[in-house]
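Exercise 7. Given the encoded structure of a 114-residue chain, write a plausible sequence.
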């Protein structure tokens, strides 16, 4: 009995990886084993950096809030403590957006908690 090889599925699997490697440099785009390694490495970087992006944005928001609050005579930690103690339900993303795009609203927030 001849050996059964599901070449249709194998080819489909390889084509999927080669398609994902489109745009890569050199043999990474068209040689199966090298493309497979490159794509898997890219997936691991993508997974890792989706989490890193969250960290980076939180750090950016904190920096913006700190800069805006110092203009009004408060530090970042003092401002966030007073926001929490006054039961103001705004997260860092919203407060940073106010500080950058709507300084009047940020000033009103600072006046409310002072």
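Solution.
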């Amino acid at each position: 009995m001849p050996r059964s090889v599901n070449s249709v599925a194998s080819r489909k699997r390889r084509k999927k990886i080669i398609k994902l490697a489109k745009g890569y440099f050199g043999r990474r785009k068209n040689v199966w084993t090298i493309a497979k390694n490159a794509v898997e490495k890219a997936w691991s970087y993508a997974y890792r950096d989706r989490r890193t992006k969250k960290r980076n944005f939180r750090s950016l928001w904190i920096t913006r809030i700190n800069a805006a609050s110092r203009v009004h005579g408060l530090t970042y930690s003092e401002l966030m403590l007073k926001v929490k103690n006054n039961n103001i339900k705004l997260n860092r993303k919203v407060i940073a957006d106010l500080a950058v795009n709507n300084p009047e609203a940020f000033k009103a927030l600072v006046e409310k908690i002072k």
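Remark. The chain is about 75% helix and 0% strand. Students should compare their own answers with the one above.
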